């Protein structure tokens, strides 16, 4: 029997730690069959992004049409989408898809490069986020999307609510938001993410902090693992918990490669 198909719509990282490369490694380790639509090539290593080359939006659309018309896709994620015309082309096609979508609202790399043009943030808010089963911002991304600097539980709740209210494409907004706490304060050596559902239900997910500089591609790996778990049939809360366990293992075993921020090690 074939494994369930899961799709990533994201950018390529020539350094192999983030983007499409992290997503496909994650999909495989989770036991899903990975498909990829490449929205941008990056010239990148562990220290910097030195170039970005995006295809014409029609070519991003052509890749998407090719996979959507042939594979029984069970779940998808988006990562680096780069510019408004690509976001619009992708959103138009994913709006009619009958599978859950995880939107990782990638804006800036850990090395400081912009992976989403500033003028494309509103397209992400209006076209992509409303389609999502889950949106997975880190704290800087939450600030960029909502203008709210998350510093405590109340501001986290407010930022999540604002994202849950992002309507568009004829949709009532995403089903849930996972506010990732990795850029925030640790509590007793734990990192806590807050999962907020549109119903108002909140779930805290805490895992031990891993002291490593090799955290390149952690956001990509987490959202890919969530999408793979959804493709395998897990409910959203279970998918997030299992993906967080997986990310913890990857970070504990991260490779100390390159002069900068090293890549995660994708373990079974
Ligand atoms: N490069 C690409 C192509 C990505 O999609 C991402 C994902 O967010 C990154 C780089 C950023 O990786 P990080 O911020 O973990 O270094």
Strand order of the largest sheet: 3-2-1-4-5-6-7-8-9
Major sheet: 9 strands, mixed
Secondary structure: helix percent = 25-40%
How many domains? The number is 1
The backbone outline, from C-alpha atoms, is globular
The Cα radius of gyration reads 17 Å
CATH superfamily heading: Ribokinase
CATH topology: UDP-N-acetylmuramoyl-L-alanine:D-glutamate ligase
The top level CATH class name: Alpha Beta
- Main structural class: alpha/beta
Task: Detail the poorly predicted runs.
Answer: none
Order of helices and strands: EHEEHEHEHEHHEEEHH
Q: What hetero molecules are bound to the protein chains?
A: pyridoxal-5'-phosphate
Describe the model.
With 268 residues, the protein is of the alpha/beta class. It has a single domain (5-252), classed as UDP-N-acetylmuramoyl-L-alanine:D-glutamate ligase. 35% of the residues lie in helices and 21% in strands. It contains eight helices and nine strands. It has helices spanning 19-30, 57-68, 84-94, 121-128, 139-146, 153-164, 218-231, 236-252; strands at residues 5-13, 33-44, 49-53, 73-78, 101-103, 134-135, 176-179, 190-197, 202-208. α1 (19-30) packs parallel to α7 (218-231) and α7 crosses α8 (236-252). The radius of gyration is 17 Å and the shape is globular. The model has no long low-confidence stretch (mean pLDDT 95). The structure holds pyridoxal-5'-phosphate (PLP). Pyridoxal-5'-phosphate (PLP) is lined by residues 10-13, 18-19, 42, 44, 79-80, 106, 109-111, 115, 216-220, 261.
